[in-house]
Amino acid sequence: MAISLSNFLLPISSLLTIVRCATVTYDFDVSWTYANPDGLYNRPVIGINGQWPIPTIRVTKGDQLVVNVKNSLGNETTSLHFHGLYMNGSTHMDGPDQVTQCAIQPGGSFTYNFTVDQPGTYWYHSHVRGQYPDGLRGAFIVDDPDDPHKDLYDEEIVLTFSDWYHDMMPNLLAFFVSVANPSGAEPVPQSALVNETQNLQVKIEPGKTYKFRMVNIGAFAAQYVWFEGHTMRVIEVDGVYTEPAEASMIYMTAAQRWSVLVTAKNSSDANFAFVGAMDQDLFDVVPEGLNSNVTGWLVYDEGKEMPTPQEVEAFEPFDDFGLVPVDGEELYDHVDHTIQLDLKMDNLDDGANYAFFNDITYVHPKVPTLYTVLSTGENATNPAIYGSNTNQFVLEANQVVEIILNNDDPGKHPFHLHGHAFQVVSRSEDEAGFYDAATAGDFPQRPMRRDTVLVHPNGNIVLRFRSDNPGVWLFHCHIEWHVASGLVATIIESPLDIQSQLQGKIPQDHLQACKDGNVPMEGNAAGNTVDLEDLSGENRSPGTLPEGFTARGIVALVFSILSAFLGMAVIAWYGLKI
Amino acid sequence: MPNVFAVPVFFICFRECLETSIIVSVLLAFLKQTLGPDSDAKIRKRLVRQVWFGTALGVLICLIICAGVIGTFYTAGRNAFEEAENIWEGVFAVLASIIITLMGAALLRVSKLQDKWRVKIAKALESNDGKTLGQGRFKTWCEKYAMFILPFITVLREGVEAVLFIAGVGLGLPATSIPLAVICGLGAGVLVGYLIYRFGTTASLQIFLVISTCFLYLVAAGLFSKGVWFFEQNAWVKLAGEGAAEAGSGPGSYDIRKSVWHVNCCSPGSKGDGGWGVFNSLFGWQNSATYGSVISYNLYWLVVIVGFVWMGLGEKKAKASGVPGNDAGSESSGGGDGTGKKPEVGAARLVVREIEG
């Protein structure tokens, strides 16, 4: 499939002519349509304005963005999250349902209105339970007139990478979190896509240097990405400019963004393949016949053949840990507040498999957390009011916060924090166990920052950020399955500042969404407005599995033993009688 | 332990071998009695040798048949069951349970076996004289070697029965578990047979038999429950997938919805099970009990209790009204092997019919 470059390219010259601080408006009618992106299966997808793939949002740093969403799905609620945007002063526009808003009910309308004050590559997607892999996911580009790398490239191309399921998410989720899937095996995608299609041809002119803005908008699979015959220079990760670093292959987890420079060859003698290869380590069982790769081509000459990509012997991707931000922000070396999160997977007494931080699996509160902040006055600083299953942490303003995440699970997890990019100050290898400051070694002086970071199997990571952005921010694994199984924490940052910013300023359409969905907007997590520490009636996770014998088991065992003894007594009676 | 010692096989061998021992002992006693101390030592010696030859040959042929049947099964048949392993294990467990249940009561009547076989053998010898075994040279041959033919035929008959039982019970068991159980069963059978021969049936022997029978029924109850458990496990594997259902003893290895108790240890199936396999073979222990396995275990005992009570009361009534032995569904009580010390003619006739049948 050939794509006109004009869809992807924005002449550099035009950047200079754009008026700063414009208002950019998008009207999105979210509705079902059909698509068959891998040529294997035609299925319903969630499109915008009847189109799928959905449009790329493009603004310039400093712009005000207005997105008018109408939910025409009919059978599902929805919301939009603008992944990676700090939403400073506008946490109510962040998008997760039951956290910063109520889900937009079918037929409802909802406006996201915020200022974008950060450059880079982002994306936007639905943030209601497990919905975006059904199609509601697209790139979000913020152009930067002050791009420090602007002299290094001639043109820009956006590439989204993703995984694709033939079944619909509600069905897949019903299986995934169920007694029939006790090991929590994540559904394996049927295909990998690039720009929501396959065999993409990207026209290239000899001698030019291109900035590829690459986004993994997938639900689950990380992808190894490489360009045959070309090396990459990494210049941006998750909206943070980095000093150029050479890479021959990158590993892009779900939700990560990487901008790389690729310089075209000087001749147009041949075309070159580029490949996105889904990381099969993530898959419980690799189904027979799965094509886990997606191929595209750098097309120098359309008349020449499109070569089949060569086998790679081993995946040896670039390690992003060593990247250095261009702004040179120094390590936060004084930590005010440490949050330790121990990740594990386990089963609860409904037989399904759940994901836990510190033995608590996330369950949505009855009242969106932001509205609890706004309706509880002074009590908003008391973590207890936010519920028993929200993994809540209340932060004070302007502190250096450290998240120590210990991955007590043999899987790879890409962790994402809303509202911030964090310094990645430590990341262990596989099987390193829990973080131990004594053995962790020195932290980098100018650590890499990003908003989505990979933690290795049974390893750990240490992240730091400054709590300078009042809001309710989720911290969660960006594997959509794990969001559904509860691998989510809630960070309530400077709740009293949130109140002063937003008290009485929640727009009418946001309130209407709650009314439409019969969602309470006041009180603690349980909707209790009188005694805020009384959480009775709140949403809870299923109970824990009993350790050993319960009363039921003891009764059964005693009865069995009794009947065995009674039986033997009868046998003895009979045997001694005859 | 389940991999090296098949408890049901042990009991089957024990019982059948005990019966064989009793036949031999009755014959030897018979020879001793009829020939008397003053008879020709040479003839007596020859007849005793005949008895032993007949027995030995019968046992040998049984062992060959047994090895053949089981060998064929394990080489050829086993693969066919792998696909639906849990279903087959369940079927075999239930089958074994039923077989043991039906033959179990017979163990209690071992003390009656001596009388039973005395009647049988007396009758058989009688009918030899009554020209039932053919004419001419064949008849003479038969008469000459009666002491060979009699044990040979009866041992063969008992033995083939044992082989069929073992094949039925052993289908679900690993091949390695059978030899030791067979050897122990044969040894114990010979020992008890010898004790009966030397000391007659005593009260302590009967107590021993009662205890053995209790064990046998414990095993059978466990097997029945295990059978049901296997059926449920099969359904669970179908739902949750092989990998999940067979991953150790932790969450996911069982269906929480049907669980009565579950402990994340003590699984009889796991390697290095620390003896829980013994409990599994003896009592049907499962670290993960289901409603099905618990209910079936209790139901089994209910049926056994009702059965024995009915048999016990029925026999009491029969005794009171003078009707010969009550066929209560147990394999050997069907013989109506008499109730008194001295065999009666009516009972003997029934026994002969059994031999001929």
UniProtKB/TrEMBL annotation, chain A:
Signal peptide extent: 1-21
Membrane-topology annotation of the record: Single-pass type I membrane protein
PANTHER family tied to this protein: IRON TRANSPORT MULTICOPPER OXIDASE FET3, MULTI-COPPER OXIDASE
Organism: Lentithecium fluviatile CBS 122367
A cellular component term, taken from the record's GO annotations: high-affinity iron permease complex
Compartments where located: Cell membrane
TM regions (residue ranges): 554-576
The keyword Cell cycle belongs to this UniProt entry's keyword annotation: no
Main location, first listed in the record: membrane
Family note: Belongs to the multicopper oxidase family.
Highest taxon, organism lineage: Eukaryota
Domain Plastocyanin-like: 30-146, 155-302, 362-495
Entry protein name: Multicopper oxidase
Gene3D superfamilies, A to Z: Cupredoxins - blue copper proteins (2.60.40.420)
TrEMBL record, chain B:
Record's subcellular location: Membrane
Cellular-component GO terms for this entry: high-affinity iron permease complex
Pfam families from the UniProt entry: FTR1 (PF03239)
Main location: membrane
The organism's place on the tree of life at top rank: Eukaryota
Membrane topology: Multi-pass membrane protein
GO molecular function ontology, one term from the record: ferrous iron transmembrane transporter activity
Region (Disordered): 319-346
InterPro entries cross-referenced by the UniProt entry: FTR1/Fip1/EfeU
TM region positions: 51-75, 87-108, 145-171, 177-197, 204-224, 294-313
Alphabetic keyword roster: Ion transport, Iron, Iron transport, Membrane, Transmembrane, Transmembrane helix, Transport
Sequence similarity: Belongs to the oxidase-dependent Fe transporter (OFeT) (TC 9.A.10.1) family.
Protein name, per record: Plasma membrane iron permease-like protein
